[in-house]
Amino acid sequence: MGVAHLPIDQSAAALRRTSLAQRASRLFGQWGVFFRGFMEQPRMVGSIIPSSRFTVAKMLAPVDWQGCNLFVEYGPGVGTFCRPVLDRLRRDGTLIVIDTNPLYVDYLKHTIGDSRFHAVLGSAEDVEAIVKAHGFGHADYVLSGLPFSTLPDGVGPAIAAATHRVLRPGGAFLVYQFSARARDFMARHFRHIDSGFEPLNVLPCRLFWGWKRESDTA
Predict the structure, then answer these.
(1) This prediction's pTM
(2) CA 110 to centroid of chain Cα atoms
(3) What are the φ/ψ torsions at residue 42 (nearest 5 degrees)?
(4) Hey, which CATH number is domain 53-211, 3.40.50.1820, 3.30.300.130, 3.40.50.150, 3.30.360.10?
(5) Would you tell me which of 88, 119, 157, 208 could form a disulfide with 108, CB atoms 3.0–4.6 Å apart?
């Protein structure tokens, strides 16, 4: 329906991209699904290639897993972080992932059979309502690979603010990006931010851990 309102050249280009993405998802499995999602929503996907295992390990290293009841992820894609998080998470813990692309949400629901896992179709801006709907008052950790530099105007700041509000004191906002701009959004709410870098990733990746302190204000 939507492409019917586009100019003919834009409509044809959109159809070609969709056809290419669908063929890729059928031919290459998980990688194909990831590529298809990137083709459909390039501004909402941080990379055309999933994060490396080195990025995953370094990003998750500071997490206190014994003290983690609820872990939230924005933009899980095909689950590059989901499985490592579940491997580390307590047996009574919960992982909620939030994505705006139904392709990724459906894929994760069909491929991750873990009672601790919940995939939600929605926006990270609504994380507080989503967390509450699952019976929690706050999250312990929130992970994001969303491309802050390409999100629509106002969305990045809104996500950073909502994330700070939903985190418990002592919790952290974990962000991996190709650009350092994400730190600017985080710094408006998180006074203490640790930084890192992972060269063994396509592309090399900047890592940030924003810690919420008792004295912080949203």
Answers:
(1) 0.80
(2) 18
(3) -60, -30
(4) 3.40.50.150
(5) 119
